[in-house]
Amino acid sequence: MTVIAAFLGMLSLYFFYNPSLYDFFPKCMFHQITGLHCPGCGSQRAIHKILQGNILEGLKHNLSIFLLILVVTYEITVYGLNHFFNTNHTNLLHKSIVTKLILIFVIAYWILRNIDIYPFTILAP
Predict the structure, then answer these.
(1) Number of domain units in the chain
(2) Inter-residue contact 63 to 109 (CB < 8 Å)
(3) What are the tens digits of pLDDT across the range 35-80?
(4) What range does the domain containing 6 cover?
(5) How far apart are CA 5 and CA 13, in angstroms?
(6) What is the model's pTM?
(7) Do residues 44 and 120 lie in contact, with contact meaning Cβ atoms separated by under 8 Å?
(8) Residue 3: what pLDDT?
(9) Are 65 and 14 in contact (CB under 8 A)?
(10) Is residue 29 part of a domain?
(11) Is residue 25 part of a domain?
(12) CA dihedral of 52, 57, 61, 65, whole degrees rounded to 10
């Protein structure tokens, strides 16, 4: 229950406060040191925009947030089905091939969003 309360508290923080305008939100250390964008760069702004209802604007800040939303939704759904309905659905996210595919996607996204040539510049926050 504490995890759910903390999660909802974080979401409300991102709903009411724009991370671009307030200094209490953490900045990306990787970007500050290297000047390059990590796979998570722009995700705080993306969450804020999505919670405000600007889904396309949010995806412009970090397209990989869509993958995160899919993974979290799937994880919660499988957990809920197994826990509350006493079923035994296999969680595909716990298979090593899925983990490897997600890792490949994240690394490719990391590399591609740092290429300063169109259309890759679209991936930068």
Answers:
(1) 1
(2) yes
(3) 999 999 999 999 999 999 999 999 999 999 999 999 999 999 999 9
(4) 2-18+37-123
(5) 12
(6) 0.85
(7) no
(8) 85
(9) no
(10) no
(11) no
(12) 70
